[in-house]
Amino acid sequence: MRADGQDAAETGNRLGTALHPEEKNHAVGPWGHLEFYQLILEPSDFFLAVSSDLRTWREGTVWRFSALNADGVRGILENAGIKSELCDILLSDQYMTFDREAGIFEIRPPEDVIIALNPVSRGILYPQILPFHARNPFHTTFALPVGGLDKVTYVSTGVPQEQLDLIKKLSYKRGNTTQFADIRLVFSKANSEEERRRILKTIARERSLSVKLRISEDSNLSQLEDYWSAGGKNREILPMLESIMMTSGIETLDLVHLLPPTPRKLLNSYPSEDGNGVGNEMPDCYWTAASFFSEDPPDRFLDSIAQVIDNRYEKASRPLQLGDFILLTDKQTGRAIHACNYIAGNLIYTKNGKSLGRPWIISSLEDVVEEYLSVEEMSLTFLRLKPQYRK
Amino acid sequence: MMTAARLTILLLLIAHSLTAQLFEDDDLAIKLTQPSMMVHRCQPGPWGELEYHYLYLEAPMSTVELINVPSRNAVWSFPGKSAEEIHEFLINSGAPVEEVNSCLEYSVAYQTGGIFKFFPSAELISDLEPGVRQTIYAELRRWPENKSYHSPVVIASGDVYDWFRNSGLKEETIAHIDKLSYPLGNARGFSDVSTVVRGLYNDEEELALLKALTRTRSLILSLRIRPDTDTALLKRYWSAGYKSKDVVTIFDAVARIEGLETIDVTRLLPPTPRKYVYTFPSRSLGVDGTYPDSFWASLNFFNYFPDEQFDDIGKVMDYARENYDISTGPLTFGDLIIMKDAKSGRALHSCVFIADDIVYSKNGRSILQPFMLVKLDDIYNRIAIEEKPQLEVWRRRER
């Protein structure tokens, strides 16, 4: 898939799954000659500090279900493909209790049962495990990288291989994404607190790209200015770009210098405790995409931004421009699934989800589409700020 | 008096915890006159292996267009002085007598009352010997009425040709500026925009001159990563005791890449300076009534969202006392350097130590001055025109 519509553009290599981890890749077009490497980001210690998993794992794995009676629970288990004989065991007094006050059945499954579940069964069973709040690992699961954990563990993790293998075995599919929920089981097998911290950081690893603009005598300043100033919305970078082009001996310029102030501030960083956010509402993909050209993003973008999109954006004409708003929707229902900003070539700027463990990154459009391809058909809409909202 | 180069060396000594050494003036290795196109290397230190290129940042044309092109006729204002006193001053300073007499006669004829305005001819201005120009302009600098003398263009490197290289100015225009420039502390000053405008022939050339005169020397700084680089040590330095947490993420990420040879130091700055470095203040930064100055830039270095209270110098020092401690140890990333008037103790400027002799700064509130990485010498030369300031180093407390 090519998103840019730039006839003259070419990419040196298909991005996304084709991108070799340690290989320099290229994208050439009106944005100049970009080269990029893959970065693997890990969340900061702040994320560990706010993560409940490091505190609650000792409670062990608990499957909580709401059902009228034990047969209702059996129905849920059997529907997930768990054999009747195993259901008998799980529903026995040894493993299941009933909280009459709450009307909740609790199963504490033995370790071998959890491990023996196949991915399809996990995918059916786990979304039904209560409660539906952030501290339930079956509700707030870890989204492993597109292509699986191997995509981010090819460099040292500090986690024993058998633990990585166990995580892979316990992971399952939701739509096109790979999920992992059995953090308590994996934590119980860790030898130290440090190992648990390394596990948490490893499964929260995310790929980003380190992008540089290659400068040479052939670079066309006027063309670069046209592209990176984004029709006047990103004029702040022009003095730097002009200065760089006039300075001999500089071969590359980090993309960070070409982005507007807010993405420059946020790129490859994680949400801060001091950062944008109102209560539980933290920056997500929509906030990120709407804030691309805002020097001081309004908290309003933390709310539903349907109105913002309707009022401020119009369909983007081709070729695409820096900062164009890419909206991913369910083609059948029209429901918004994700948003990101166009950078150049097939590169986009995004924050996947509002978790404190998800950074602002540069990614390929293919990777983002693959990560969010949870519906039968997805539609991509390219939008651009209306002229009256340009600076 | 301490020269700028001596200041650099002094800070290096502090930074490296070396034993102080005495240098004779002849021994001072002034780094300022090296050509801008070369790659320069910092002294090695806990910051790692740093290299940089000088950059000359010019204000965007949309801002330059807000500046009025001055008249081709220069005006020297002498508040409280009579024609006789001005004549005596100029002659005693060494200005050519005939030219002075001729200009004074013309000036007397066109006085409109109030402050005496002396109209120097282009010939008089051009004919001034460097020492004479320095003396006269030092006097003119005292009065804000003489705008281009009161706030001259400061060529911090002292090398006019290097300063305006690739600026788009004609060679003869640069030569003219060079001829009219004068020693200003350890830098060179330039005030005679009116005289240089006389040699230009269209609006385009005039705008190009005004744009070039907004030049500020900055630098783009890279950290070299080699296979044997100890990134744990670098992480410790650049995270400033974890006051800047994002750095840990980027170092860990970079440590996992083979083939990435350098990191742009912009990526190692905390969020707020990363957002603004190498840019000129936008209109939105002036919404609250004032634009950021050096204190705003440096005291907000570690703040995720800038604190807007720093338009009052009293609040600046209160904030420093509440959040920083005076430091006498080796300089480290994020240290606040405050330059104070040696006599009154008034804070004149502040900047933030990055590494070696490089700081993060914004000079004054002007929208013509960018946020930038810059040599400490360049800042010092700008501040130390009249008197050498007193330097204090403050360190942000752990939060």
How would you characterize this protein structure?
The complex is a heterodimer of chains A (391) and B (399). In chain A, strand 15 and strand 16 (360-364) form a beta hairpin. Chain A is an alpha+beta fold. Chain A has helices at residues 45-50, 53-56, 70-79, 84-90, 111-116, 119-125, 161-170, 183-188, 193-203, 221-228, 238-246, 261-266, 285-290, 306-312, 365-372, and strands at residues 10-11, 25-29, 32-41, 63-66, 96-99, 104-107, 142-144, 172-174, 177-180, 206-214, 252-254, 313-315, 325-330, 336-344, 347-351, 360-364, 378-385. Chain B has 399 residues and is of the alpha+beta class. In chain B, strand 11 (336-340) and strand 12 form a beta hairpin. Chain B is elongated, with a radius of gyration of 23 Å.
Residues in helix, % of chain B: 25-40%
Model regions low in confidence, pLDDT < 50 over at least 5 residues of chain B: 1-36
- Sheet with most strands of chain A: 6 strands, antiparallel
The helix content of chain A, as a percent range, equals 25-40%
Task: List how many beta strands of chain A DSSP finds.
Answer: 17
What gyration radius of chain A follows from the Cα positions, in whole Å? 23 Å
With strands numbered from the N-terminus, the spatial order across the biggest sheet of chain B is 10-15-11-12-13-14
The tally of helices of chain A reads: 15
What distance separates the N and C termini of chain B? 38 Å
Alpha-beta content class of chain B: alpha+beta
- Discrete helix count of chain B: 17
Mean pLDDT of chain A: 88
Measured by residues with Cβ under 8 Å of the partner chain's Cβ, the largest interface is:
A-B, 48 and 49 residues
Strand content of chain B: 15-25%
Q: What separation lies between the terminal Cα atoms of chain A? A: 32 Å
Q: Indicate the radius of gyration of chain B in whole angstroms.
A: 23 Å
- Please tell me what the overall shape of chain A is: elongated
